[in-house]
Write a structure and sequence with these properties.
52 residues
Length: 52
């Protein structure tokens, strides 16, 4: 599983123009979806590399 870095997530939110305080409040709500999406990308890359 890919680790979740709160600092990076807040920096990304700020780069997108979102208020850091609001992003900090919302991150726990979106974290499971983000982790699932990241894991799906990793699985797809592994599938492409191994062909299985």
């Amino acid at each position: 599983m890919v680790g979740w870095d709160m600092t990076a997530a807040l920096a990304m939110a700020e780069a997108l123009g979102l208020n850091r305080l609001i992003a900090a409040e919302l991150l726990p709500l979106i974290e499971p979806y983000a982790v699932r999406g990241i894991n799906a990308q990793v699985r797809a890359q592994n599938h492409d590399e191994t062909g299985s």
